[in-house]
Amino acid sequence: MIFIEADSKEAAFYFACEEYFMQHINEPVLMIWQTNPCVMLGRYQIAAAEIDLNYAQKIGMQIVRRPSGGGTIFTDPGTLLYSFIRPDWKPETARKTVAGLVVKSLQELGVNAEAKGRNDILIRGRKIAGLAQHRQYSKLCCHGSMLFDADLEMLTRVLQVDNEKIISKAIPSVRSRVCNINDHIQIEDFKKIFTNRLVVNCQAQKYTLSDNEIKKINVIRIEKYNNPTWTYGETPRFTFHNSKRFEGGKIEIFLDVKNNIIVSCKIYGDFLGIAPVQELESLLEGQIFTQQSINNAICTQTLQYSLGSITKEQFLLCIFDYSHNPS
User: Fold this and answer.
1) Which end of the chain has less Cβ packing within 10 Å, N or C?
2) What is the pLDDT of residue 30?
3) Residues with Cβ < 8 Å from 73, sequence gap 6 or more?
4) Residue 37 pLDDT > 90, yes or no?
5) What is the 3-state secondary structure (H, E, C) of the chain?
6) pTM check: above 0.85
7) What is the average per-residue pLDDT within 49-72?
8) What architecture is domain 240-320?
9) What pLDDT score was predicted for residue 162?
10) Is the fold of 2-232 the same as that of 240-320?
């Protein structure tokens, strides 16, 4: 395993690093990084629904879209982020392995942390860390963030958390759901324990990016992760729209239906799939807008890769259990 720490504080740079490593480096990679104040959208989320864009733009906060699913998060210099990349890593194995490394490192420092739910790490029932995954070039990247001394007031101000998510977790607000770890340990203490555990257990070797590698990474950063089209997307045209929240996350479906044929499909949400959801969208396009037709179209697909733990039955429920008819 190679271990990388870079000097950049720009989130788009590190997502470009992940993509470059997954394409060009064939051994396992660990990267530890930090950012300036930043909001990171999940791969399939709608920016205006998740972020107070006026506030973020007013204070010059970075807004970037991750290549992984899940929900929107806030990071700043008081947040520690990490990326693990391994060839042919299975998603569930990756999640358990990485969460276990984080929890054991915290416990070694006397912090009673636990992994819980889809992707959270908690202290006394409050979230201090989360993780998500994406797959490219036959490799899996599992990355996450940890709140050590983050500006929680800024976090609360910029994130527009779905009320259904707050209600489903039986908590009164996003601010009461999260907490910092600095009441227990400092960021540098954890980083030392975490990296030492990996160096010993995984024989990680420190790796310095060359000027040529940084140049190639910056091309990806500029063309993709700093591209407004990638970050904000386009508002879909639709004649049908519905959304539901399940244990596996929120799913939101937009369909443009003409003469009872699905002309176009867009799927959004904070589900934790690892494969591009565009493959599923394409399956629906051209289908007759009936439950039987859509069920037949997706019956041979493994939806887990696109939608995480959201099932086929839940997906169909989101389309056909609605309070209004498509116009």
Assistant:
1) C
2) 92
3) 39, 40, 130, 145
4) yes
5) CEEECCCCCCHHHHHHHHHHHHHHCCCCEEEEECCCCEEEECCCCCHHHHECHHHHHHCCCEEEECCCCCCCEEECCCEEEEEEEEECCCHHHHHHHHHHHHHHHHHHCCCCEEEECCCEEEECCEEEEEEEEEEECCEEEEEEEEECCCCHHHHHHHECCCHHHHHHCCCCCHHHHECCCCCCCCHHHHHHHHHHHHHHHHCCEECCCCHHHHHHHHHHHHHHHCCHHHHHCCCCCCCEEEEEEECCEEEEEEEEEECCEEEEEEEEECCCCCCCCHHHHHHHCCCECCHHHHHHHHCCCCCHHHHCCCCHHHHHHHHHCCCCCCC
6) yes
7) 94
8) 2-Layer Sandwich (3.30)
9) 59
10) no
For tokens 């039955």, the residue is 313
Q: Could you report the per-residue pLDDT of 12-30, keeping only the tens digit for each?
A: 999 999 999 999 999 999 9
Spell out the CATH class of 2-232. alpha beta
Identify residue 40 by its one-letter amino acid code: M
- pLDDT at position 194: 85
Edge-to-edge strand order for the sheet containing 249-258?
240-246, 249-258, 261-269
